Amino acid sequence: MFVRRCVLRLVTYERHTHVNTSVRCLHLTQNRCRAQLMDGKKVAGDIYQELSSEVTGMVSEGRRAPHLVLVRVGADPASGSYVKNKTRAADKIGIQSTIHHLPADTSQSTLLSLVNQLNIDPDVDGILVQLPLPGHMEEKLVCNAVIPEKDVDGFHVLNIGKD
Ligand SMILES: Nc1nc2c(c(=O)[nH]1)N[C@@H](CN(C=O)c1ccc(C(=O)N[C@@H](CCC(=O)O)C(=O)O)cc1)CN2
Hints:
Layout: H1 2-5, E1 11-12, E2 24-27, E3 32-35, H2 40-60, E4 67-73, H3 77-93, E5 96-102, H4 108-120, E6 126-129, H5 139-145
Parallel strand pairs: 4-5, 4-6
Antiparallel strand pairs: 1-3, 2-3
The ligand Nc1nc2c(c(=O)[nH]1)N[C@@H](CN(C=O)c1ccc(C(=O)N[C@@H](CCC(=O)O)C(=O)O)cc1)CN2 binds next to strand 6.
């Protein structure tokens, strides 16, 4: 997914590769690696472009656009902004998005039921539970309730560490 595909790009060079002066050297055990300053806006723009073309391709083949569901619990203003930004990013790419905004006093079992419904809903491709959750909830348990195939953040124990 978009967020997971936004990775830091490290450029490794062979010993005799031309050395750009803006490049800093890092010496690892075997290889010489150079970290290159990244133009974040350009990389983000390229990723938007790439994903947008992918979605356009899917739709032109008669498939529906991917559907992302965002779950927000409580009224944390920062979480509100992050969720809004994520739906904006989805819109820009052509991904459908839906927000489920639950009150702060929602019980954990109600949240888990919602996650389970979304897990089995064939019209939902990705699920993102915005953190932090209210103090009475166990974030690890909730993150692991999202099935790995729909786990947009990669927070499920089976997805952590995968690229
Ligand atoms: N379900 C998730 N919940 C939360 C995540 C997450 O990845 N998934 N991360 C944070 C909140 N968050 C996104 O949701 C987030 C917070 C901060 C940043 C970030 O890059 N901050 C930069 C500034 C970036 C900028 O200026 O554009 C910084 O602090 O230096 C990104 C995402 C917790 N919840």
